[in-house]
Amino acid sequence: MEDFSWLSRTELLIGRESLVKLSKAHVLVIGLGGVGSFVAEFVCRNGVGTMTIVDGDTVDPTNRNRQLPALSTNHGVSKADIMAERLRAINPELQLHVIKTFINPEAVAEILSAHHYDYIVDAIDSVTPKITFLKEAYQRNMRIVSSMGAGGRMDPTQLKVVDISKTYNCNFAQQVRKNLKKEGIYKGIKAVFSTEEQLKESLILTDGSNYKKSAYGTMSYLPATFGAVCASVVIRDLIAD
């Protein structure tokens, strides 16, 4: 019989039956940066029994202001490996699948076909890989929550959960909607976004690596809040089944 004693405070809130549901669920988290790393942590700490985490990147010094795995002592180390060690330390009984790869069409098809997922979290921060992933997941009728842009903002109280078609004040979401429409997808994807106007002055151009041509300035707590909201969508939907 599974030991739920470490989840006693969670059980007080949602009950034993919901804990059992979560222990039988499999959640996929794509992207382990500022948003996805916190998603993975919060999902794990709610007792989800099986997780798959995906990220091909390593820790960079500029990650340290907002990403859970990033420390001054682990620059160049795989984010997936760092998070895997952390998640297993939180819950040694966790069934964890670790995939260290960047997102491309071949990888997406392989990842989505590897297991049955009860919920998927898209925390990809580059438009082209994000569209590739969302299109494939949508066509497979998978349950998914997608994070929009956390950069260029400072107010964590302005986050909302809506259908992708109802997002606004977010350049990243606008690009995602535009590209999804080219694929014939207009709605049907749950999105977490901020209604706050982005601070345009914080935008910088990048070298284009990992499909990113630009980036906004970020605060430590904004991506984490996005991660918390995404995780809450997953947990609340799973226990409502």
UniProtKB/TrEMBL annotation:
Record GO terms (molecular function): tRNA threonylcarbamoyladenosine dehydratase; ubiquitin-like modifier activating enzyme activity
SUPFAM superfamilies: Activating enzymes of the ubiquitin-like proteins
CDD domains registered for this protein in UniProt: YgdL_like (cd00755)
UniProt-listed Pfam families: ThiF
Annotated THIF-type NAD/FAD binding fold domain residues: 12-236
InterPro entries per UniProt: ThiF/MoeB/HesA (IPR045886), ThiF_NAD_FAD-bd (IPR000594), Ubiquitin-activating_enz (IPR035985)
Biological processes per GO annotation: cyclic threonylcarbamoyladenosine biosynthetic process
Record-given protein name: tRNA threonylcarbamoyladenosine dehydratase
Organism: Dyadobacter luteus
